[in-house]
Specification:
about 30% helix; alpha+beta; 3 strands
């Protein structure tokens, strides 16, 4: 599942950075850092609240999102 269509819910999301932020705008670099992602291959698990969904939608082309069961 890619970003851009993530809606807030109570689900747990595993977010994986798949592309580097080199060459991206500063707000995208800051958003990745706020999610806890530092380099391609890093993974974090976050709740799909409104703030997290907004960040995911901002950097959707750099990450991959999966729902944790």
């Amino acid at each position: 599942m890619t970003g851009k269509r993530i809606k807030p819910s109570d689900a747990q999301l595993e977010i994986t950075q798949i592309k580097s932020y080199v060459g991206e705008k500063q707000n995208m670099r800051d958003t990745l850092r706020s999610l806890g992602l530092k380099r391609p291959g890093n993974k974090v698990v976050r709740t799909a609240d409104a703030v997290t969904c907004g960040m995911i939608n901002t950097v959707a082309h750099l990450i991959q999102v999966e729902e944790v069961k």
